[in-house]
């Protein structure tokens, strides 16, 4: 049996500094309350006139609103440092606070000084020069304005490392899961802190096993990027984007990010972002390759679908599309030209002419410049620049001339670009072996593969639709023709920073497009190649991503924090069968043995009584957030209904529209990925459900078995899968 869910310890602590720390906490709370009272007193926020007074009052009110939530928990740690022969103690919290009249200031966790709390380094060079030395690191457990525990992590007077960091971590990990993200600001480990604070302006790929804290670190890195100390790399929350693999997780992330002070971030899925950029929000997006992989038993057809999907997401397709568009536009320009009379101030009207030869030269320059807002906008600017130069237009005449040329230039652009919409042009390219061959990048075999349709047996929606494997190709057409990035009104600009969760499921082509849509170096990818459930659209290795994101650094989190030793060892055994860096070190946290429930194959009610019993056992062990993980969504729907006959009421989560609110849920492995639960029950954990001979199936089993924090059960009618038996 696992330990019951722990709570904060009572107010008893034998630490010799407990009373003095409690007194300092009281002083800090009082200082914060005084500051909030000052900000909320409108009579004190007076300016030279009424308008200035209103602005000052509003700003003060915003400051008060930001500080108020932190009064109950002002800080979580302290640093005793020695700089220039003088010792001082710095307190580290989630929100910086400056006490102008006393010693109760708090430095923010995301500041450079705050970073010292998490690292193993014992010295640093302050900005003002000199040499700083860490004398002590201390963890302070505070809740409801009350100090509960003092734990020294490092104390040079007691011999250095006290083992307190691991002690605090284990206390936190023993707590039960909630429907939110685990708060790690207080317990960031040195390797996590290093990854989170990797120098801004460098694309970062954070590779880590299930439970290593990738998603949490990515979100905190985004928050860190918004700090003023980032200088020219500072990101605006409203100009950032987080891409989550499905809408269940996107809703979950959108709830969490405001707690980190970055509530304005756009949170969506790759499909949601793509269809929004294409202006096709009502387009139904399918994943017929996944459907085939989950349902078809013909290995030849599955292999063909896998290979075709991988090729559609190959980074080379970016240049295949570019070459195709170059040929299309050049053909459309033949015989085109402009001859327009333009009225000018204080001068006789003049004729603006441009020939198709000149237009071809302009198009070549536009392709070479590769503008963010696309070839169409770039081509218009080139024509307009030619007109202004040819007619020798003065500054005060410029607007009038461009207004006169607007209609004929728009008509010309329509003749050249109008037929190349992203959906039709991507499909036109795939249907033309000649166009696919034009770049010389694809072999005859690859071109033939793109011309096949291994998904012909998978139903398609009756209304307009696109497959996820086609979307990157459509986005490539959009990027080149209409541009790609963040719309700010009518202006297209690059995102300040983009975070990709489950990054092993993004194609190299999509990475190349996101690289175009984001400031150079401002992309953070979080993934685990061992968990690649959608490998047919993901990279084969991180080197393939680095090839399209120059300077990208791969940082590996070598430790998993989610699960007990028993659960971690089981997951590592499964992952080792597909030989991808399965050397994962777990936190040495002991827990319940993995529970196994089996029944004869002819059992009258199948596995239903077993699952119901497992739920009761998990609840008896003190767990409330429990997941029953199934292979497919249809299995989850069926189980949710049938389990009611066994006095078990589980909320089904079977589509991306469902929201995870905690409690007992039943959901397919595809939607469980990215979530964690106090207890998890893997249904039908056998070779009939997870084919032992197929790597993809073993990946699914790994993901299913790695969702639990404290308690894991495996259920099967007949023998359990040999990897978990």
UniProtKB/TrEMBL annotation:
Domain UvrD-like helicase ATP-binding: 187-564
Keyword presence, Nucleus: no
Gene3D superfamilies: P-loop containing nucleotide triphosphate hydrolases (3.40.50.300)
UniProt cross-references to InterPro entries, sorted A to Z: DNA_helicase_UvrD/REP, P-loop_NTPase, UvrD-like_ATP-bd, UvrD-like_helicase_C
UniProt binding sites for ATP: 208-215
Keywords for the protein's UniProt record, in alphabetical order: ATP-binding, Helicase, Hydrolase, Nucleotide-binding
Protein name per the record: UvrD-like helicase ATP-binding domain-containing protein
Species of provenance: Deinococcus aerophilus
């Amino acid at each position: 049996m696992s330990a019951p869910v722990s709570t904060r310890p009572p107010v008893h602590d034998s630490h010799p500094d407990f009373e003095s720390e409690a007194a300092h906490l009281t002083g800090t709370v009082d200082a914060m309350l005084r500051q909030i009272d000052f900000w909320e007193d409108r009579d004190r926020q007076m300016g030279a006139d009424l308008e200035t007074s209103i602005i000052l009052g509003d700003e003060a009110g915003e400051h008060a609103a930001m500080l108020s939530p932190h009064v109950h928990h002002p800080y979580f740690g302290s640093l005793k440092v020695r700089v220039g022969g003088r010792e001082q103690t710095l307190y580290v919290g989630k929100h910086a606070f400056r006490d102008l009249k006393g010693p109760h200031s708090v430095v923010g966790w995301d500041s450079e000084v705050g970073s010292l709390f998490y690292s193993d380094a014992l010295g640093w060079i302050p900005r003002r020069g000199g040499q700083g030395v860490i004398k002590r690191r201390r963890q302070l457990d505070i809740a409801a304005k009350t100090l509960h525990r003092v734990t020294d992590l490092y104390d040079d007077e007691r011999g250095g490392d006290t083992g307190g960091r691991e002690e605090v971590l284990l206390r936190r990990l023993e707590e039960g899961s909630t429907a939110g993200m685990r708060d790690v600001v207080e317990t960031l480990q040195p390797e996590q802190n290093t990854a989170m604070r990797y120098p801004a302006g460098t694309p970062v790929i954070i590779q880590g096993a299930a439970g290593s804290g990738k998603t949490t670190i990515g979100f905190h890195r985004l928050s860190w990027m918004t700090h003023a100390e980032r200088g020219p790399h500072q990101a605006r929350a409203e100009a950032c984007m987080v891409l989550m693999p499905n809408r269940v997780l996107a809703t979950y992330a959108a709830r969490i990010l405001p707690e980190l002070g970055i509530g304005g971030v756009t949170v969506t899925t790759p499909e949601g972002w793509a269809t929004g950029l294409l202006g096709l929000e009502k387009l139904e997006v399918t994943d017929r390759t996944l459907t085939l992989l989950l349902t078809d038993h013909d290995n030849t057809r599955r292999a063909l679908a896998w290979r075709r999907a991988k090729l559609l997401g190959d980074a080379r397709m970016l240049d295949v599309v570019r070459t195709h568009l170059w040929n299309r536009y050049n053909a459309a320009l033949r015989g085109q030209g402009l001859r327009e009379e333009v009225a000018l101030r204080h001068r006789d009207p003049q004729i603006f002419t441009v020939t198709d030869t000149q237009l071809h030269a302009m198009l070549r320059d536009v392709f070479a410049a590769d503008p963010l807002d696309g070839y169409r906008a770039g081509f218009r600017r080139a024509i307009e620049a030619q007109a202004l130069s040819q007619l020798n237009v003065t500054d005060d005449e410029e607007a009038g001339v461009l207004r006169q040329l607007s209609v004929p230039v728009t008509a010309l652009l329509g003749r050249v670009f109008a037929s190349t919409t992203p959906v039709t042009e991507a499909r036109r390219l795939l249907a033309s072996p000649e166009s696919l061959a034009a770049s010389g990048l694809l072999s005859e075999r690859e071109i033939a593969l793109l011309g096949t349709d291994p998904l012909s047996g998978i139903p398609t929606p009756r209304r307009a639709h696109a497959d996820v494997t086609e979307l990157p190709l459509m986005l490539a057409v959009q990027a080149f023709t209409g541009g790609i990035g963040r719309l700010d009104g009518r202006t297209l600009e690059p995102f300040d920073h983009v975070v990709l969760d489950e990054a092993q499921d993004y194609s190299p082509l999509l990475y190349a497009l996101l690289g175009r849509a984001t400031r150079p170096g401002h992309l953070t990818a979080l993934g685990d190649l061992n968990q690649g459930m959608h490998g047919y659209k993901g990279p084969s290795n991180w080197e393939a991503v680095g090839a399209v994101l120059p300077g990208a650094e791969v940082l590996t989190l070598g430790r998993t924090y989610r699960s007990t030793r028993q659960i971690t060892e089981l997951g590592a055994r499964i992952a080792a069968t597909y030989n991808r860096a399965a050397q994962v070190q777990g936190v040495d946290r002991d827990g319940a043995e993995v529970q196994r429930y089996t029944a004869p194959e002819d059992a009258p009610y199948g596995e239903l009584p077993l699952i119901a019993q497992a739920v009761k056992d998990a609840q008896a062990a003190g767990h409330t957030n429990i997941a029953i993980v199934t292979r497919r969504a249809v299995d989850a729907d069926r189980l949710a209904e049938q389990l009611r006959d066994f006095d078990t009421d589980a909320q089904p989560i079977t589509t991306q529209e469902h929201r995870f609110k905690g409690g007992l849920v039943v959901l397919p492995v595809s939607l469980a990925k990215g979530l964690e639960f106090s207890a998890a029950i893997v249904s039908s954990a056998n070779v009939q459900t997870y084919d032992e001979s197929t790597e993809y199936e073993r990946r699914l089993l790994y993901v299913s078995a790695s969702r639990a924090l404290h308690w894991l059960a495996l259920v099967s009618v007949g023998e359990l899968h040999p990897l978990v038996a």
